[in-house]
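Input.
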Amino acid sequence: MNNFCGIDYGSKLAGTTSICFEVDNKLVFLQSEKKKDADKMIIQFFENLRIKQVFFDAPLSLPRAFFGEGEDFFYREGDRAIGAMSPMFLGGLTARAIKLKTTFEKTGISFFEAYPGGLAKELNIKEKGYKKDSEQLIFLTEFISKNFDLKLKKHPSNWHQFDSLLAFVVGLRFNANQALFFGDEGEGGIWV
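Output.
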């Protein structure tokens, strides 16, 4: 059994945060509910399961310029390399993500910034309907399941759950020394 999870992180109360993790050798999804605190759901999840690594789809660091190095206050090296959004554009979401990381790294959980959209590019699934209609969601879930030999308790019911599945796959690739790294470790890089 894998002791890591993939998280697609969304707005606090929007019901768009999803966690993909393994139970009894099958992947399951946990999703936040609208108008309920997604961060509390994640905290409870961490307190109830023995997760060692989190592959998190949200910025987990700020650009170097905030620490007196360089002049780019908007993008980190990894953002530019892979075409990710600026941590500054995501503002409050970035702050919440860094707070969760800072809090739970003290308990021994390792956080890695994952980029499902980057993995979608790497696997050439953008052309196959990534984030289009629900028919493509089923087709692409089957594609990912077969290519990474994954068993799912049930298919993801939305693209947030699918992105948490992709974040989980980044974890698989990372633990098999196959993940790609973009950016600079000192600034905080992005894994695909």
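The radius of gyration is 16 Å.
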